[in-house]
Amino acid sequence: MTIPQDRIIPTDLSNEMSRSYLEYAMSVIVGRALPDARDGLKPVHRRILYAMYELGLTPDRPFRKCARVVGEVLGKYHPHGDTAVYDALVRMAQDFSMRSPLIEGHGNFGSVDNDPPAAMRYTECRLQALSTNALLRDIEADTVDFADNFDGSQQEPIVLPARVPQLLLNGSSGIAVGMATNIPPHNLGELIDGTIALIHNPDLSEKELIKIIPGPDFPTGGQILGRSGIHDAYMTGRGSITMRGVAQIETIEQRGRPDREAIIITQLPYQTNKAALIERIADLVNEKRIDGISDIRDESDRDGMRVVIELKRDAYPRVVLNNIYKQTPVQGNFGANMLALVNGEPQLLTIKDFLQVFLDFRVETITRRTQYELRKAEERDHLLQGLLIALDNLDAVIQLIRRAADTSSAKDELVQEFGLSPVQADAILQMQLRRLTALEAEKIHAEHEELQLKIADLKDILARRERIEAIIEDELTQIKTIHATPRRTEIVHDDGEIVDTDLIANEQAIILLTEQGYIKRMPVSTFEAQQRATRGKAAAKIKDDDVVEHFLTCCDHDQVLFFSDRGVVYAVNAYQIPSSSRTARGIPIVQMLPIPKDEKITSIVAVSEFREDVFLVMLTRNGYIKKTALSAFSNIRTNGLIAISLGDGDQLRWVRLTREEDSIILGTRKGMAIHFQADNQQLRPLGRATRGVKAMKLKKGDELISMDVLPAQVTAGIGDAAEDEDVLENETEELTEEETTEGPWILAITNGGYGKRVPISQFRLQRRAGMGVRAIKFKSKTDCLASLHVVNAEDELMIVSNRGIIIRQAVDAISMQSRAATGVRVQRLDDDDAIAAVALVPPAPETDEGEGEEEAAEMVSE
């Protein structure tokens, strides 16, 4: 076949290739791969949702086959393969793929193990309530533009009138030509809070928005390590966000076999295939790249995910867990690339840009909706005005119509005679006879007046930007009330990351460590409110066979030093300890510190500043005491630092902060106490890797149970005692007036719940390594001393029992007695309970009235 010469157009090949490829690239970018920044949807997702809306698949209607929806989308709007449409539909129904799914699925829609969904002929679907409330509402109110479909037979929306920033809510990913996008999902409530804040203050910076929207919120939960990646993504549009699954180290009880340590994975990073992860760990174990694992099994069920990794007896759980983080997808990176279409062009957006584009679009949609409602109201009112004219001239109108030859002439005569418009004349001619009654006439008058008010209100909305912004805020608040859910992904501190502590509130906190190694942090304000609400019930939920062993009050900016029985010290910032509610058990401390299995934390100290003139006094189980400058512990390595050298069979038990001019008091299980100076003569400073000197001479069967520090101004004027003073018979029960009115005092509390205050003057200063004096007389033979503390009149106590019962007790409510007295009941205990720990609460900083009340109410309801 010969082609006529006039149909051949000479074209430069390079220009043609460049133009054609550019057209193809833009077609992929705009029509397939990148989402619109306004509604956050790609064309295929938008067409699926609109097709389901047209089919009437709202949340209150029955499910329909997915094949019906896919056929509707293919035939009307999206002339591509059915697999592409069905895959997009399935993803919008997966709760592990989207933070807030837009479609409700019925049937097999796949799993986190990457199992494929059932064929579309088996599965069913309908729209989620969020889709109808936040994406499709008002679509028929001329809020968005419509365009012809591929063959011009149908109209489809160019964009959906989204009421929430959907692109940030569910995120998006796509690969175009020469560019790609990868936007993480976020929490709906936080996004709405950020949008409302931007409405109130358009000059809000990205840094201020980050305080409201702290980071992504992935549907599978997990953790985000550090904030630097989030900061980069929100400030520049690109950033690498480190994700980590949630893993705990637990002891598994096995019948007929010794208990074993196991790593339990309960949450995975976003888009991680669980089955592939288990296979990957097994391969690494077989290749001997990860040691210490004896078995792996998947115990996940409908209640949640649970991957159990059993460890060998000689394995260090923390080391194995770190290897899993390093070599498997349990820890990975989300490469955020915040690219989206703005006015049809791909742009890299910051967090503020996303919200600003959404707000501008929302203003446009509300303006168009208001204009549409105004137009409809004015049209209706125009008809009513014509009906009112007819009612006012009813007899004349009836006569005119009766003598008219036909409808057309009647219409023309009405227009000419009464000055009506053709539309009004049509309405009069179509009016039913029943509308001529007096009651119907009143209804027309009332509707006319109501429309006049509505028209004035709509015009006021169009004239004032603040009215439109108020409507946006009101609609956002309604959606938040109905659809917002708690955050699933926790943002935790990353080791080595520089943290701006000014962004972290320096609140008072309680830190609890149990005998089985579970640690938790609870705000003091929350605890106080909870105490008022629960009237002293259990404030720390622990296992039946576990007991609270260490109890500390500090501030969130403090550094907490953990001393082990082997004389090693570890350090962690207080705010890094996960904050838990009353009903939470906490997390294993081995998840925070690299503590070997046979090592145990015996003392906790909170430090706000490492000063040269402050010392740490350490006391061992065998009675050796040592004083070391606090500055020697300012740089503690991740794997710990040697704090004291120990002899065979000895353990580090107590550590306290002191100054050189202070004095030290020790207490023993059998009620003895010794008081001596902490100066260089009695206790000279020693280095870290030293043993110390003898602190006290103990009787047979006795042991040290407590150590506290007395400030220098308190002990001024107290005389020295004889070395062997320990005679109760020669002491008097009566106290001097000065002793009873002036503190501080020594507070002694026994295991049985009895306690008393004793004037410090009754504990004369002695030389170190003496026998001491008797501090208390026991109520029964089975009772023993549990705690010996230095207290002031304004102090308060936190008393913890073995069963986790915590009470708050004012010091001045405890009776003042001599050393020879037995004390009064401080806490009433059950027969199988005993006092486990006693801690002082420092003066609380000023807080807003009612702070912590809401969380307390939640704890009570639990």
Automatic annotation (TrEMBL):
UniProt KW DNA-binding keyword: yes
UniProt GO molecular function: ATP binding; DNA binding; DNA negative supercoiling activity
Principal EC category: isomerase
Record-level GO BP terms: DNA topological change; DNA-templated DNA replication
Assembly, per entry: Heterotetramer, composed of two GyrA and two GyrB chains. In the heterotetramer, GyrA contains the active site tyrosine that forms a transient covalent intermediate with DNA, while GyrB binds cofactors and catalyzes ATP hydrolysis.
CDD domains noted in UniProt: TOP4c
EC numbers for this chain: 5.6.2.2
Organism, scientific name: Crocosphaera subtropica (strain ATCC 51142 / BH68) (Cyanothece sp. (strain ATCC 51142))
Catalytic activity: ATP-dependent breakage, passage and rejoining of double-stranded DNA
Gene symbol of the encoding locus: gyrA1
Protein known as: DNA gyrase subunit A
